[in-house]
Specification:
The protein is mainly beta. About 0% of the residues lie in helices and about 35% in strands. The chain has one domain (about 25-375): Beta-galactosidase, Chain A, domain 5 (Distorted Sandwich), CATH 2.70.98.
Length: about 375
């Protein structure tokens, strides 16, 4: 999803705290069998490169990003390339919620919270506020040849209640597996909803491919969350049967493209929607994406109940050199963001009976596994 925040370029990387080590130093982790290799920076605990092998055995970097990773901080239009997003991912209506949660806005008081808005002309908070977790310098805690762990302490940033301490661990292993886990504890009652905001192009902009419309998508979901013009949930669900949202059986992302006008907002063509998984087992694949051109396939399993799929209508960023840049840009529909997460704005939708409030004794855990394979 597009991040439209105004970026204060003079803000120190430490964000008012003691200066931490340079947040854009790369950490590389590789599976022992060479099937997958990934690079991360501390800023946002961000995945900057992900190399997997195509059907001819050639490694391709299948995620978007920058050659100069400091642009994760300085690019005013950066589209949230592959970080951990929090303290509350996706959207919050009017940047406001209360604890206990309510449907209607409550008068200001000790249990009513206002988070800076940064989207839809000030009517929405997106991805945790102007300086969410993707725009914070995480601390490198430990690393090994195949794993790296980062820590972030959110001391009531952006107006959220209490302090949340989070650890993000990224691990690669034999058989083409990348697993990311985030565990968080809270000092008092607070909403927590995280995601990893990965932009995929499984062709890596090679062989004449510039978009993901021919990528195949399968989502184990018979419902999509119904949203208004600001992409805020109405409280209802859409049955995908007979609609462009039906990916229960594999479809090319662009198969029903003429039917996707305004699905991702006014004037937008494509997808920016949240599917609610039908599956109950955490180990069961929820989303699969693959390309016939490269032969690369990724099967995604998660402990989260929903997935946001954004087909990058607003994307317009210079490419990495490995993707043909920098004179070329990642353009409209050049990638698809697939975000494992909870229900959009459940903290303002009590009729769902979805509990996203955490506190001492009730800890948060987000876990997603990406399994890569090839078809020839």
């Amino acid at each position: 999803m597009l991040f439209k925040a105004f970026i204060v370029l003079s803000t120190a990387v430490s964000f008012g705290r003691a200066v931490t080590p340079w947040p854009f130093d790369l950490t590389t982790i590789s599976a022992p069998d060479g099937s997958v290799s990934a690079k991360f920076v501390s800023f946002g605990a961000t995945l900057t490169e992900l190399w997997v092998k195509d059907k001819n055995g050639k490694a391709r970097d299948v995620v978007l990003g920058y050659d100069d990773n400091s642009r994760l901080l300085t690019d005013p239009d950066h589209p949230v390339f592959n970080p951990i997003v929090g303290r509350y991912a996706n959207r919050i209506k009017n940047g406001t919620f209360s604890i206990p949660i309510t449907k209607l806005p409550q008068p200001d008081g000790p249990n009513v919270y206002h988070i800076p808005t940064n989207d839809h002309d000030g009517q929405v908070t997106l991805h945790g506020g102007i300086y969410g977790w993707d725009r914070r310098n995480w601390t490198l805690v430990s690393k090994s040849p195949s794993s790296v762990t980062y820590k972030h302490i959110d001391a009531g940033d952006e107006g959220f209640p209490g302090t949340v301490t989070a650890y993000a661990t990224h691990t690669v292993s034999n058989g083409g597996i990348l697993k990311s886990v985030v565990r968080a504890t809270a000092s008092q009652k607070t909403p927590i909803m995280l995601t990893q905001h990965v932009y995929w192009n499984l062709d890596a902009f090679q062989d004449g491919s510039n978009d993901i419309l021919s990528h195949h998508l399968q989502v184990d979901a018979s419902r999509v969350i119904d949203v208004d013009g600001n992409l805020i949930p109405t409280g209802d669900f859409i049955n995908v049967d007979g609609t462009p949202f039906d990916f229960r059986k594999e479809q090319a992302i662009g198969a029903r493209w003429n039917d996707t006008f305004n699905l991702c907002g006014s004037g937008c063509q494509g997808y920016d929607s949240s599917w609610v998984y039908d599956r109950s087992e955490v180990s069961r694949t929820g989303t699969s994406l693959w390309s016939d051109l490269s032969g690369i396939r990724v099967d995604i399993s998660t402990n989260q109940p929903a997935v946001q799929v954004y087909s990058a209508f607003w994307l317009n960023t210079p490419r990495k050199a490995i993707h043909g840049g920098p004179t070329l840009s990642y353009g409209r529909w050049g990638a698809v963001a697939i975000e494992q997460q909870g229900y959009i704005d459940a903290i303002n939708t009590p009729e769902w009976n979805v509990d996203q409030i955490y506190y001492p004794g009730k800890n948060f855990e987000w876990s997603t596994t990406y399994k890569f394979s090839v078809s020839k």
